[in-house]
Amino acid sequence: MTTIPPFPFPPTYNFPPFFTPQPNTTTRQSQLEKWSSLIQSWCRHHHQYRLPLIEAVETPLFHNTALRKRLDLRDAREVIDWMTKSEEEGGGGRRAEWISDSGGASSSVSLNGAGQGPKTVAWIWWRRPEEWADVLVEWVESTGQRGSVLTVYELIHGEGAMSQEFHGMDTDVMLRSLNVLVKRGRAQIFGGEGQEGVKFF
What we know:
Its main location: cytoplasm. Belongs to the VPS25 family. InterPro entries: ESCRT-II_cplx_Vps25-sub, ESCRT-II_cplx_Vps25-sub_N, WH-like_DNA-bd_sf, WH_DNA-bd_sf. It holds the Pfam family ESCRT-II. By secondary structure, the chain is an alpha+beta fold. The protein has two domains: 25-124, "Winged helix" DNA-binding domain. Chain C. Domain 1 (Arc Repressor Mutant, subunit A, Orthogonal Bundle); 129-200, Arc Repressor Mutant, subunit A (Orthogonal Bundle). The protein contains six helices and eight strands, in the order H-E-H-E-E-H-E-E-H-E-H-H-E-E. It has helices at residues 25-45, 53-56, 73-84, 129-142, 152-157, 171-183; strands at residues 50-52, 63-64, 69-70, 96-98, 121-124, 149-151, 187-190, 197-200. The strands form three sheets. It has a three-stranded antiparallel beta sheet. Strands 6-8-7 form a three-stranded antiparallel beta sheet. Helix 1 packs across helix 3 (73-84) and helix 4 (129-142) packs across helix 6 (171-183). The chain starts with 24 loop residues before the first helix and ends with a strand.
């Protein structure tokens, strides 16, 4: 088991106002961009694809114990909300996506009293499925596996992909990335749930 080295926090993380939503629109935009970048870097560093906010607000990502500053659940949710929007919508370029209770994307905003509403877990796209699709194609080409059939399990856990960034990937993220390739006519998925095979073209 390899130990993950400590996460290198950016200088802004040690700047107290970073943890307080800024009233000025321009400053707030810059603050949201920095939060988005930090969340993506954190998730990438820890090979984390889903971010459960209720747990995450207790981690160093949102809680700087040295400063005694933190983002609470509502503020963290605001940052993720901004990350889910496209740049055209004034957001963070769709670098996050809420996950509904059923595991799919959620557009619902209702919250019950316990704060356990749909907006509690999000995908963090430090690489979007389209970007992962490109990475997979590059790997398939470079290893001469075009035309071969691999299982989804092999792609995620196989020895051949151990040195790749997608090794150990969340299965749902892998399937979404592979579906991008299906739409592009570069792959075919067959077999039942949990037993999927993929053929690359």
